[in-house]
């Protein structure tokens, strides 16, 4: 039986990520402005302390290049900084891109290589790309009208991945990373800056794109057609993050916001489910088939069941 626990963290941990250690065990990365730690998610033991001498930190991503040692990529005000995700030691990387990087995403490409995507905040407002194995820059993707603050990659069976980017223009753009072409028209409707994008595939095979914005609104779209699905969900009074997941055969959304609570919704109907729980930026953990949720907060990172039955 899984034991609920709190992992202490210096300052506030505002970013949680998961990756596999060299033994195959699940590790939880807790990142913030003052400290970045990696924990054994099953035991709660701290296993890695990262040097945090970065010029401003906006996001974190863990790459698994060619099945080798996982690498931590840090989005900073001066490009991407790289660390060995197991030892925490800084390693070399590309220094040709000095743009301020906000959101990041990593994905396996059709040719088997792994690519890191970074939201370029400065002009010319492009999606930067790096080869995760060599950490060298690849050609930019896309061209946007304003600052980009978030990027996401969604892989669909039998199709090339779709890269999504959004920013100050309040619109979501879809790109084919293989051809470099835009996929359909931009998705328009958010009142605030849409800064969080995830996807969930429903029982019938339809994939929903779920996006949260700086006004606390969550919207759902058909990923391929770009058509809105249902009415917007006013999930929180401030910026909303979204975690799609399946619970008991039901597609659900976990959202968090500036009110420091996590709420649960039916992914298709938008119905509010259960009671809110404390925390923000939820991530899903699985231990031997048993699910739990990790949420960040001022007192550390809480791992609990959160009603996942």
Automatic annotation (TrEMBL):
UniProt keyword list: Repeat, WD repeat
InterPro entries: Quinoprotein_ADH-like_sf (IPR011047), WD40/YVTN_repeat-like_dom_sf (IPR015943)
Superkingdom field: Bacteria
The name this protein goes by in its record: WD40 repeat domain-containing protein
